[in-house]
Amino acid sequence: MSQDEAICYIKKAYVQHWILKGLKMEFKVPKINKWDPHPINVSQSVVGFIGNNYFVLAESDRGPQIIQHKNMISTQFHIDPSYHESIIVLDNFIKAMI
């Protein structure tokens, strides 16, 4: 693994989530980012609008990597053909949303 990569870990509570279908519990992602999210667990620290609707589905040592907020999915990593798992995430999103 190079210093431009991170290991993404799927949280056990979300292994059956539709966006994670076909992924291993751990996989490499690119970590060339303009910013990093704070690794705080928002669902436990913020009450109300965000707290009940924000889920960290996968994370790395740098913080959240795949999150869901209501009907939005966000990845901290870029979708890159050289990282096959990132293509799986995009494919799952397209299949679920179309």
Q: Taking strands numbered 1, 2, ... along the chain, how are they ordered across the largest sheet?
A: 2-1-3-4-5
Low-confidence regions = none
Which class best fits the helix and strand makeup? alpha+beta
Mean pLDDT: 85
Radius of gyration: 13 Å
How many extended strands? 5
The description of the largest β-sheet is: 5 strands, antiparallel
Keywords:
alpha+beta, 5-stranded antiparallel beta sheet, 98 residues, 2 helices, globular
Describe the structure.
With 98 residues, the protein is an alpha+beta fold. The protein has one domain. The chain contains 2 helices and 5 strands, in the order ββαβββα. The protein has a 5-stranded antiparallel β-sheet, covered by helices on one side. A hairpin with a 2-residue loop joins strand 3 and strand 4. The protein is globular and about 35 Å long. The chain starts with a strand and ends with a helix. The mean pLDDT is 85.
Topology:
Elements: E1 5-10, E2 26-30, H1 42-45, E3 54-60, E4 63-69, E5 72-75, H2 84-97
Antiparallel strand pairs: 1-2, 1-3, 3-4, 4-5
